[in-house]
Amino acid sequence: MKRFFFLIVLMAALHTHAQQSFTLFRQEPCGCTHVSADELGNLYFQGPRFIERRNAVGGGTFRNSELQWGEYQSIDLTDPLRPFIHFPSAGKLVFWDNTLSMQGSPVDLFEQGFDQIELACGSRGDALWLWDSRQSELLRVDRTFQRLSSSGNLSVLLGFAVLPVQLIERGSNLYVRTSDHRVLIFDIYGAFKKQLQPGEIHDMQVVHDRLYIITEKEIQMINTVTSESAQLPLPLSDARFYASKGMLYAVKAGVLYTFKFPETARN
Fold first, then answer.
1. Is 65 within 8 Å of 50 (Cβ atoms)?
2. What domain range is 228 assigned to?
3. Are 50 and 64 in contact (CB under 8 A)?
4. Which long-range contacts (CB under 8 A, 24 or more apart) does 213-221 make?
5. pLDDT tens digit string along 118-167?
6. What number of other Cβ atoms are within 10 A of residue 128's Cβ?
7. Which end of the chain has fewer CB atoms within 10 angstroms, the N or the C?
8. What is the rounded CA–CA span in Å between residue 149 and residue 138?
């Protein structure tokens, strides 16, 4: 009887663990170093000298190798129909359409009067967020680069040095990841709302009202409305991860692994 009871408990524990674990859905070579996804589910593969877009439901693969303006962090997919890349050392913004065809000439931020822009991301209403490192300030501008709003000097306002490494706008919030592992949250006018200090951060994504914090060994999921949080161990080590709509993508040694989130953690 005791043995039977032990087996029941063990099976229940294994079932619970399975429900809380990632499931490998697909594995394929990609030859890339990083993958990201837009809100339509299209995948973007990034390599040192190329970007490739694969449609979510088939219908084509598009590739662009015009990346001659130096190093960049990632492709901005805020607007799936108009992705762009910021090349900070060259002061260039390069916009594409959804086939990765370049739209016009690259925007020269230096010519627009912005000579210390280290980060940029898309914003609602066809606008942009820029991080001005000289002024320690977030700037929201329209596509003619007229200022719409600004945060003021954040290092002065918050009382500590603010050194952003990533900007993401989703919904009514701007999320700023800093080099000292903070997540600062602002409204779309640049007003500071709150900060999170979840521990060491390797990367950050936001899907709807879910903030994903990727650390060395786990992914933290924070509901930005209720502040509820949960953690899951990452399914691979030494990989680069991207979370999007119930899927976790991992790139390791030129191979793309696609995992499904457990049912209890789906978007």
1. yes
2. 200-267
3. yes
4. 213/183, 214/241, 214/243, 219/243, 219/248, 221/265
5. 999 999 989 999 999 999 999 999 999 999 999 999 999 999 999 999 99
6. 24
7. N
8. 8
- SS in 3 state form for 123-149? ECCCEEEEEECCCCEEEEECCCCCEEE
pLDDT mean across residues, the chain? 89
Mean of pLDDT values over 204-225: 93
Q: How far apart are CA 26 and CA 258, in angstroms?
A: 5
Q: How far apart are the first and last CA of the chain?
A: 41
Considering the domain boundaries, does residue 176 fall inside one?
no
29-38 as b/e: b if 16+ CB within 10 A: ebebebbbbb
In a domain, 239, yes or no: yes
Q: In whole angstroms, what is the distance from residue 139 CA to residue 141 CA?
A: 6
Rg of the chain over Cα atoms, rounded to whole angstroms, equals: 20
Residue 256 lies in a domain: yes
Q: How many folded domains does the chain comprise?
A: 1
The answer to whether residue 185 is domain-embedded is no
Q: Is 222 helix (H, G, I), strand (E, B) or coil?
A: strand
Q: Is the dihedral of CA 99, 105, 110, 113 positive or negative?
A: negative
What is the CATH classification number for the domain harbouring 254? 2.40.10
Query: What is residue 235's DSSP assignment?
Result: S
Q: pTM for this structure?
A: 0.88
**Model pLDDT for residues 74-117, shown as the tens digit of each residue:** 899 999 999 999 999 999 999 999 899 999 999 999 999 999 99
Q: Could you tell me the CA-to-CA distances from 230 to 4, 49, 177, 227 in Å, in that order?
A: 33, 37, 19, 10
